[in-house]
Amino acid sequence: MGVAKSPELSAVVAAINRRDAQTLEDVARAHLPALLRAARAAGVGADDAYDVVQDALLVFIERAADFDGRAPVLNWMLGILYRKVQERRRSIARDDPASQLDDPYEARFNSDGMWIRPPLSPDAYTANVQAMTWIAECLQRLNDRRRLAFTLREVDQLETEEICKILDLTPNTLGVLLFRARNALRECMETKGMRGAHDVEM
What we know:
Elements: H1 7-17, H2 21-41, H3 46-62, H4 73-92, H5 103-106, H6 129-141, H7 144-155, H8 160-167, H9 171-191
Helix pairs in contact: 2-3, 2-4, 2-7, 3-4, 4-8, 6-9, 7-9
């Protein structure tokens, strides 16, 4: 049995389904920052992020009649965006070498994919402007999958089930991606001088 929608939600879904111009514009404007952030997190450069998001928005409009309101509209749009990013990556990076394995980080995990020693928490540095700048720099060093998973979880605060649907991952795979992203952030921050017991979230 499906979950009953509120009258307000049903009205929004109906407006999206019939491609009401004002509703589509409002939805696009409301979620543009999150879409751009996700595109950048997925490895799209600043110059191309708007183009990829625009392509995703065009698909959103074309497929508006398919939106059923069971998931938040942002999640549906993020799923479209992620597929557009994948298409773009395949079209311009056919001859790229295989993804790096991040060997220095592999030794941090046991055979079950769990931490051998825990990562630092970025939350420990939120009060420090310099530290936040470093965190942003370190995030850019993550590979695309880890950066996007981390951003959807820690910045956009999406739930595991939502992220798995968007990125087509199992919960276990997502968990490993997030663990390794946090570990890579710890390694990067330590190279910048942020180290010690006070840096570790207990």
